[in-house]
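Q: Structure for this?
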Amino acid sequence: MSLFGVLRKLPSFNAIHCHINFLGRIARQQPYSMYQPFVKEPTYSIEKLDQLIESGEAKKREFVPVKAARSDHNVSVFHDELTSKFINMVMEKGHKEVATKLVETAYMKIKQMQLAKYYKATTDAERAEIELNPIVIFHKALENCKPVLQLTPIKRGGATYQVPIPITENRARFLAMKWMILESREKERTVHFPERLAYELLEAFNNTGKVVKRKQDLHKQCETNRAYAHYRWG
Amino acid sequence: MAVLRELVVFPSKCFRGVRSYFFSAPLFQNGSLKLNESVSKDGHALDFEQSDTKKMSKAMKSYMERAKIHDNFIKQQLHEYNIGKRHLANMMGKDPEFFTQTDVDEAIRYLFPSGLFDPRARPMMKHPDEIYPKRKAAEFDVNGRPYHSLFYTSKPNYYTLMHDLAVKFKQLDRHEDKIISRGIQNQKPTELFLFGSEWIPKQKIENVLLESLTDAQYVNLIKTFERFSQHPYSVIEKDFIMQFRRQLAAQVEIQQVPELMRDESGRPYMTYNARRKTSNATVKVIGQGTGVISINETDIHFFQREQDKKQIIFPLQFSDMLGKVDVVATVDGCGTSAQSGAIRLGISMCLRSFVNAETIERMRLAGLLSFDPRTRERKKPGQAGARKKFTWKKR
């Protein structure tokens, strides 16, 4: 028997559900997915792939099917995962192009403002301090806006207390992005979203501004509610 | 009795060790067994047995008869199968001595063509062992006393396996203790590499143990095995564990990369028909190229969105083939995102023939070679859309 014949006879994972019973799935409270539960997420970043292969993790995935790459995955030098996430959060009703344009305009504005400062600067030391890359500014700004704790309502003895609990990385990132977007969508109609976003990002980069203040207010509230922390465990 | 000699009889001791789970050659320890004679292991009748063995119970008699009938039936089927094989070989003009099961299947398919959908409904001729389920041999002697100590659990083989696992676990613990007491603490044992294989499914275990298991029992067994294989020194029992695992085919090998074709000018090329949602793309990647991209007879600006253009270039850039191959694609159906996704898949599948195995595996891990099965979710009755519900009214 040929090698191919042997291999075809060996069982292999079928990545896609063959029989999809919609109503049955809903009844079972499982998140609906066209993929089987064991199918892995794709790794498209070249550095991460190299890491996987070096560490030997890739060997474990040899026998497991991988999901298809998403539409916003690519290996372009201009690609930034965090920015993709942010664009998705800015997007409303599926208008991806509009959202991309808004965020990219904001980046352009940041670059313009920073360049203006750069040309105004007289000494080399001053110039070295000015950050020109809008993506670096965006990353740093988000870091400064991420809360460390969050409040959750817990009912004890008829009263509902706001109890501080630890926060996951994903939740912190989500909150930072959410606040940033909310602050940028304020009532002033003359100043449009990209400009406001640019200002907010720059302020957050310098650890000032409304979003950072919001984070600090949350931290203060957590501090005042320290006494209820043990309610977490009933 | 000649009949009972054919039955496979398990040794009367408890199961210990692996080989007892699988059928071995018939071993009939007591020689010929006469129905009305009492036989003990030593050969002479014991006093307290005398009253039982004078008359065999009706249950025992009917059991013996049934066993005899079944055995005869299987023999008959086997005989018919062998004769049938020879007839088929003669009909097909092949050598009857070297007529294998695959030849039999082919002959049946040729002589009895069937339009039925389910393969199990079509005519087949297989060895009786594959059609008629195997039965356990006599689990008790003529006096009705069971051989196996766990007989009254009604699943002796299953529980023996569980007990064996427990015993082996303790043995591994003792081994670990010994190693620690000798002070060889720093020595890490080799890890048991279980990737590339999965636990054999419930049906197979039932066939091996000859007992039907409930789902809960099967899950329990697998959990015990998982726990056992996670022991640091489980590599000692590797053979035992691997008997209950089956190998999987590596995903890359399943793909079977096709060979490059040559066109009139001698340039290598590859074609692929790719789909995404309801759009179809026919992609042709031509080697020895300069990076010319043609989509529906226009260039890459067929797509207005940056995202779509990036999708087309993604596989080329990923595999370092940007500027080295030409792409000619035709696409129709659905929207821009689906069309660009289809072309991306088409390009990736064609590029497999141009790049080495390592790059193919990298592309697979990046999700470039996977078909995207996501489709529009259907609207459900009683709801406004796929997920959106009508306004909830309390009353």
